[in-house]
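Internal ticket - ligand job 295, L-homoserine:
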Amino acid sequence: MMSPRKKLTISISKSVTISIPGTTANLGPGFDSFGLALDLANLVTITQKEPTTSLPPMVEATAECFFNGSGLIPFPFDWKIKGSVPQARGLGSSVTVRLGVLMGLNKLCGLPLSRDGIFRLCAELEGHPDNAAPALFGGFTLARSLAEPLRYTVSSALRFILLIPNFEVATPDARKVMPKSISVSESAANAADAAVIAVAFATKRYHLLCGAFGDRLHQPYRTKLVPFLPDVIKAAELNGAIGGWLSGSGSTICALAPDAASAPHIARMMKIKAPKGSKIVICTADNQGATVLKG
Ligand code: HSE
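stdout (structure tokens):
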């Protein structure tokens, strides 16, 4: 039987701002598991007051999940979002919304939920944990279902080059183009490469990542949606990148440069292979994860 809902006591402030990093997920063969937080962020402000306009469905659904999870009586709130994580480009923008709402309400209510509790709610809402884990905890993360993710800090020397096309890819569409099954040999090769990526990040031996980002499960099929993907990755690798992958379900392509000095040249070569209107952002990893800025 469900326990009765508790009455809300606003403990600290009536308004709170949360900073949530953008993320790149999958990193090739780590489908729905690997993720890495980047130093671009969205800021979500939650204020306890009647909203000025109706809240977006994603915000409503996340708030409902928070109030159900915490057992608190819902109260009206307004929200604002700003920042540099583009929407529907495979950089975890939906997680910035969901974590912003979950963490903002949690802070306003005096932290009834633990960080792990917030992670589980966010991963459940997303349907997969690969963006929720790095956005919340920072660094490179390995997530399996709703279990506590493994987390490793990432060297600040590395650069992540994002080639952001001027079109969106919706994750449900990008999942529809995938096959129902793949062969044993393809699955074995993916498992071997994923293991190498995990060890390379866990031990900070990044040179091991060379040749490990190849994927046979989703990228070859998603090339339908991002046709220049193989050429952009090849251009990056031929010009000094350790490797490259489709960021989450796209449309962004991410390449890993060994240092700051090599990144601008790699970025220029990637851009030549991409359609007009594509944007380049060069960033480092974020090792902090989502943080409460104000409140
Ligand atoms: N791992 C998901 C996918 C997207 O590739 O469909 C990111 O959550």
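Auto-summary: Residues 42 and 83 are 4 Å apart (CA to CA). The two ends are 35 Å apart (CA to CA).
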